[in-house]
Amino acid sequence: MTELCGADNVSVEGHDSLKNEKSGAKVVLDVGIPAEVKDVDAAAVASAILEKKDLIAIYGSNEVHS
Question: Staple 12 to which of 4, 20, 25, 57, CB 3.0 to 4.6 Å?
Answer without folding.
Answer: 20
